[in-house]
Amino acid sequence: MRIQSGGFACLAAVVLAGAAPGVASAACPPLLEHSFTTLQDGKPMPLCQYAGKVILVVNTASYCGFTSQYDGLEKLYARLKDKGLVVVGFPSNDFGEQEPGNDKEIADFCRLTYGVKFPMASKTVVSGKGANPFYLKLAEITGSRPKWNFHKYLINRDATQVVAFTSFTKPDDKDLVNKIDQFLK
Q: Where is the signal peptide (predicted)?
């Protein structure tokens, strides 16, 4: 495990205890048994639809020093989606009130400013006791909770491994890309 300090990548790989290896992609792993509403159109977004894919989960904000990471996240998604990567954004106003808009405002900003096409959930809470259950579980598994916007969790294809990366880890960071490639194999 590498700990974030002064802008260096944090990597905390944790294998889920008790999860069966080789879970069929048609089955929904317990970690993905959560559903949200999509940011773009308000339709249901069950995470089970991503079973069998490598999932990069990112809490986002429109008015943050890390907001330019949207560009890299979209490029990463466009480049690797056909190989099985899905990026899922979770807008949150938890840190510095840097996501004050409503869902339509956030969706318009992401689409018009960064051309975001990867799936995004409606605005949600990702930190503290009021965090949504999915984020609470990710933090529990990795021992790493979001401390700011653009914290990342990478989930392997059968949702038995989760790796956490801090906000300082850019979408093209070597450690992140290497771990994605490893999970895609």
A: 1-26
